[in-house]
Write a structure and sequence with these properties.
Layout: E1 2-14, E2 25-39, E3 42-43, E4 48-61, E5 72-85, E6 89-102, E7 108-110, H1 130-134, E8 137-139, E9 150-152, E10 154-172, E11 178-195, E12 208-209, E13 217-218, E14 222-232, E15 237-248, E16 251-252, E17 256-261
Parallel strand pairs: 7-8
Antiparallel strand pairs: 1-2, 2-4, 3-4, 4-5, 5-6, 6-10, 7-9, 10-11, 11-14, 12-13, 14-15, 15-16, 15-17
Length: about 260
């Protein structure tokens, strides 16, 4: 267990060299952060495989004047539990959520996954506002979707994974002599949402909508599921995920292929 605290002073100057029609932007921001962290996780070949991890944090930036401070308070939590059985099998549950209030609340960008190599964006990269570049937060993974699939000052995300040994040992001969060991597999389901809201006002978040099917139809909720493989190559960890999105009552989308780097959450 530990407490993490930090204070950041950030000066941002943005000027468009190719045009004089957009004036120079100057923003000065003072931000503070306090987080309570617990970590009892034990690690395997590709990521944590037993124990738990959690983080609960509060971040704030006071609004000083038009060009100084952003004026937000953000609360967020992230809890992960790893269940290990039969030595090499794991079931993982992750719950994360947060909200931001103030005159310029932080934005949560929901969708995609971290260190995504063949990345795609919904609506393009958000670079119009410096606040979106420096003070927004990407909330991942939600496989089957793009970056910026949903945006809001509130978000909720649940990840469920069953992790198992996929390839214990494989050796190929000519023409590509290649050996692979301890390739891990995963079956996953990601469910999440991001929306705009304000304390004390009606929040227009509608997880489901009316459906003539026996199953409900997802509205503001996003859901993806699929299968993946993780290979520890010694100098890097390569991940491949094949994901489908679903509205439940409408069946599934075409498969999406995700190549990414890094350990599992």
């Amino acid at each position: 267990r530990r407490l993490d605290a930090g204070v950041t002073w950030l000066g941002i100057n943005r000027e468009f060299i190719s045009t004089t029609e957009v004036p120079l932007e100057r923003i000065r921001v003072l931000a503070a952060n306090l987080a309570y962290v617990t970590d009892t996780a034990l690690w395997g070949w590709t990521g944590p495989n037993n124990g738990s991890r959690s983080e609960f944090s509060v971040s704030l930036s006071p609004k000083i004047d038009a060009n100084n401070g952003l004026g937000f308070v953000t609360l967020r939590g992230d809890v992960r539990r790893y269940y290990k059985f039969f030595k090499e099998y794991n079931f993982v549950v992750r719950l994360a959520g947060g909200f931001s209030e103030g005159s310029e609340p932080q934005q949560f960008f929901l969708g995609g996954l971290d260190n995504w190599l063949n990345q795609r964006f919904s609506g393009g990269i958000r670079i119009d506002r410096p606040e979106d570049i420096y003070f927004s937060s990407f909330e991942t993974p939600l496989r089957g979707t793009n970056y910026y699939e949903k945006t809001g000052n509130r978000f909720a995300l649940m990840n469920l994974e069953f992790r198992f040994p996929m390839i214990r040992q494989m050796e190929l001969g000519w023409p590509l002599p290649l050996s692979m060991y301890n390739v891990r597999g995963t079956l996953f389901t990601d469910i999440g949402a991001a929306w705009q809201g304000e304390i004390g006002k009606y929040e227009r978040f509608q997880p489901f909508k009316d459906s003539s099917s026996r199953l409900p139809t997802l509205n503001d909720l996003l859901m993806g599921y699929g299968i993946g493989a993780r290979a520890n190559l010694g100098f890097l960890l390569l991940r491949l995920d094949i994901a489908w999105t679903t509205k439940l009552s409408h069946g599934a989308s075409k498969p999406r292929y995700y190549f990414s780097l890094g350990t599992e959450f």
